[in-house]
């Protein structure tokens, strides 16, 4: 039992794994405290009252760009707990996930990833950095921030995912697991718990979560006898499913689907394939009128999974301490019956290291850019700095660039561009990328009689508008398509969105340029 022990839950929410852990800890006699983003929210307050647990009246928001502020918040949390008579925390449970800014461009990018149209790597760097921090780095800052109210016996537990569905931010959880090992090496009692699939506010966006829940129920729970400790929540689940009209028919149909169309799905599957199969199944279920039965049954099973997972975390890890610091322990559906021991998770597959190219770099400032791109007017130059390789141009030649969007007072183009809305549109951003490519080519051309010209642009998803002060970051790789023809595969990103595209061009002799320009000379003739 945990009678009298002090446990702090970071980020627990109603309907999540944190709720199951909190309820199990309270039932075991622990004093449970919790933090949220908005402790003033009545829903959050009602949730903690229902546990019952004490909601700390200090907002805690993990932000990769304000880590000092996060650590300062932890100081205030420590003071709050001491004022409540807590001299030491016995356990800290980190249930934080997410980290995606609630911006339309970010939500669209997430939707594209879940449909297999892009990957996590395609997101804006600032967004990826924050997602890594919230899902992994925040665990390390939690340990640092609470060191004044912890000791070597304090347990730090965080949650990871080790299931059979493609998890597009899995690399953040890889990092979390490595951080736990690092902290264990410093004497911290860290544990990473991989809990089984259940419907939560986070997992509901995973294509196939419903199928995974039903599949595991059929394989490991249906018709089984749980241990005495788990009997009550198990029987509650079984009675609710038995009372659900249409559930037997749904199971029959899903068993056929799982057998015929789900057997090859695993964590390494292409999300596009998973999404397509799931959408097709959902369409069929909607036509037959039993889609709602699927959702209700998944929620019923998930209630049990979250509850039983919480009981296992409390019993096996917090009470019995059945792990070694730095472990990743994986709870399977079969463990939710309470009669098996939780095993160490299998080692992650180590990714093949990419070949590292030893590149030499050269930096160019605004004045270098201005003198090199002298053919552009001062107000139509959309580059501030460039970093690019040194040497001969080749396929794969790499460069980077930045541009800070000016205010209308700094650049009249924006003042006259969108009246009353001085935003840097997608077409101007494409122009910035084209200037970036032109700069790179001019710097590597030794024969100054050769001139690069633009022949086309392809940025199909460049639909974000950048406000004044926003710093646009560009990366480009030159590809030599054929003689004289060039392709710049480029990305341009702001804080929340990254767009990929192509700038096409060719290198021609100055003599050819003069002939082309002469064709535009005015010629007298008949009207």
TrEMBL record:
Pfam families: FabMG. InterPro entries: FabMG, HotDog_dom_sf, NAD(P)-bd_dom_sf. This is Uncharacterized protein. The lineage of its organism: Bacteria, Pseudomonadati, Thermodesulfobacteriota, Desulfomonilia, Desulfomonilales.
């Amino acid at each position: 039992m945990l009678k009298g022990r002090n446990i702090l839950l970071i980020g627990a929410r109603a309907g999540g794994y944190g709720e199951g852990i909190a309820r199990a800890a309270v039932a075991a006699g622990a004093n449970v405290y919790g933090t949220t983003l908005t402790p003033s929210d009545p829903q959050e307050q009602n949730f903690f009252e229902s546990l019952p647990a004490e909601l700390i009246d200090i907002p805690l928001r993990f932000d990769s760009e304000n880590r000092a502020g996060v650590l300062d918040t932890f100081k205030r949390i420590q003071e709050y707990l001491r004022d409540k008579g807590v001299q030491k925390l016995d356990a800290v449970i980190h249930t934080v996930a997410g980290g995606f800014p609630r911006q339309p461009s970010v939500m669209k990018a997430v939707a594209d990833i879940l449909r297999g149209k892009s990957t996590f790597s395609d997101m804006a760097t600032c967004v990826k950095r924050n997602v890594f921090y919230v899902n992994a780095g925040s665990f390390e800052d939690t340990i640092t921030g609470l060191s004044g109210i912890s000791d070597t016996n304090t347990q730090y537990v965080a949650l990871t995912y080790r299931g059979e569905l493609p998890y597009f931010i899995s690399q953040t959880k890889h990092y979390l697991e490595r951080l736990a090992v690092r902290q264990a090496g410093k004497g911290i009692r860290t544990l990473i718990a991989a809990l089984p699939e259940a419907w939560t506010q986070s997992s509901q966006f995973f294509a196939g979560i419903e199928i995974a829940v039903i599949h595991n129920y059929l394989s490991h729970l249906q018709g089984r006898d749980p241990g005495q400790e788990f009997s009550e929540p198990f029987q509650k689940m079984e009675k609710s499913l038995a009372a659900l009209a249409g559930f037997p028919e749904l199971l029959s149909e899903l068993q056929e689907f799982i057998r015929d169309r789900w057997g090859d799905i695993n964590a390494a599957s292409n999300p596009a394939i998973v999404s397509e199969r799931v959408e097709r199944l959902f369409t069929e279920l909607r036509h037959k009128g039993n889609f709602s039965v699927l959702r209700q049954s998944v929620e019923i099973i998930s209630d049990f999974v979250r509850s039983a997972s919480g009981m296992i975390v409390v019993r096996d890890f917090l009470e019995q301490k059945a792990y070694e610091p730095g472990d990743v322990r994986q709870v399977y559906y079969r463990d939710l019956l309470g009669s098996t021991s939780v095993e160490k998770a299998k080692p992650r597959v180590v990714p093949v290291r990419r070949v590292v190219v030893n590149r030499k770099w050269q930096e160019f400032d605004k004045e270098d850019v201005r003198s090199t791109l002298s053919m552009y007017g001062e107000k139509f130059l959309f580059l501030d700095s460039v970093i690019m390789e040194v040497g001969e141009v080749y396929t794969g030649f790499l460069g980077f660039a930045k541009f800070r969007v000016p205010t209308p007072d700094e650049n009249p183009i924006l003042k006259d561009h969108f009246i009353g809305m001085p935003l840097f549109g997608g077409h101007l951003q494409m122009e910035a990328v084209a200037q970036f490519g032109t700069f790179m080519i001019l710097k590597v051309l030794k024969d100054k009689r050769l001139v690069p010209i633009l022949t086309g642009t392809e940025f199909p998803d460049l639909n974000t508008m950048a406000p004044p002060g926003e710093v646009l970051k560009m990366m480009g790789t030159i590809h030599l398509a054929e003689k004289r023809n060039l392709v710049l595969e480029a990305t341009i990103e702001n804080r929340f969105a990254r767009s990929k595209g192509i700038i096409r061009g060719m290198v021609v002799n100055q003599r050819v340029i003069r002939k082309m320009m002469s064709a535009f000379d005015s010629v007298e003739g008949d009207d």
